[in-house]
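**Protein fold record**
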Amino acid sequence: MLFVLLVLGMGIKAQEDTLPKTKVYKFDLKQDISPAAWRITKNAFAEAYEWGAELILIHMNTYGGAVVEADSIRTKVLNSGIPVYVFIDNNAASAGALISMACDSIYMRTGANIGAATVVNQTGEAMPDKYQSYFRSIMRATAEAQGKDTLIQGNDTIVKWRRDPKIAEAMVDQSLYIEGISDTGKVLTLTPSEAVNLGFCEGIVDNIDQLLEKANIERYEIKGYRTTGMDKIMGFLMNPVVSGLLIMAIIGGIYFEMQTPGIGFPLAIAILAAILYFAPLYLEGLAANWEILIFILGLILIAIEIFVIPGFGITGILGIVLAISGLTLSLIDNVTFDFKGVPGEAITKALLTVLFSIIAAVILSVSIAAKIFSARSGPIARLALTESQNVEDGYIAVDRTLKNLVGKVGIAQTVLRPSGTVIVEGDQYDAISEIGFIEAGESVVVKRQENMQIYVEKKNS
């Protein structure tokens, strides 16, 4: 009898092993919602589709993050052809609440929270109402996307939302009052039991296995997204703070290169910072070829204005505009010059990041340069040339042959506007026109010599 039961048991087990398993693809959102989180989401969804997943599960624990990336993830979830569940493991605040509400089912751990979605700046202060209004509409639309039931009771038509849009809006708007749910002056945050009662949570569970059991998925195979070293590097470099520091390194490197002769270490730092700034944005699909090219063109125009064209005019201004535009547009997910679907705050945030970084870089560079070149002792002094070459030691500050040219007449070899070359007594010299431009071939007279440079004027007939 025991043998028969054993055989039957083995047969049942073998039959169970042949039954199909639900393919569950799981990835984590356990960090601030940022470009890195959006990158992980895109890769995870692509891998889930390729694997043939029947369910995507987000394991969430976040205090929120950037609105732009949160909206991108929300849209990805809403448009998913595969059901998406979320397991809130402690926190789904702000951007996390938005993403959670986009999922088909929400499960929460005991002690977890969802809500507190007021839009704040980097210091934690609430943003102006136009930002709050935009986010309120996103929260409402996300709740409405989960559908509603229309009930007929007698002569009354009752609309019952699966997730009430007003409750979703109350997570952003502290002035919204909902009787028995939200008090005026308080942003709504729900506990697991409250979320269940209000239809914002399908169940309270302690782990993934309990979640799948509660969702009536008995046999399953879980495949998880593995964060690679490249993911971590890309996430680090695309952090807005790091992007700002890289911009500062680009501007600072160029500034210090202009203060020193030849091509050296500061320029190498600027080039490396530019590569680290643009490379992850390019690989992520944010920075297009033309955006990088207009940044490079901007730098070329600035160089032409400084080293070739006298004064500072249209060329320099255009160069600055192009350089700033290249840096800014690389941070925005736009297609050519089509900004449809790009939130206004995304453009504003990118522009402010670039402008703030440039201003900070200029101020910091000037300050550091002043300390370096004024230092007389200590480690900083070693970065600047402070040695003196005295006349008593045999050093002569000026080539005396140039001083002897004062008063002599020559011919402009090239156009002087104002700098160029002249021929005096058969020898060629670099010269600068004192008054106006001088055409090639015109007679000139050497008026003075200063700092190894001769200054000339057009000779009157």
Summary: The first helix runs from residue 2 to 17. The chain has a mean pLDDT of 83. The longest strand covers residues 84-93. Residues 120 and 413 are 64 Å apart (CA to CA).
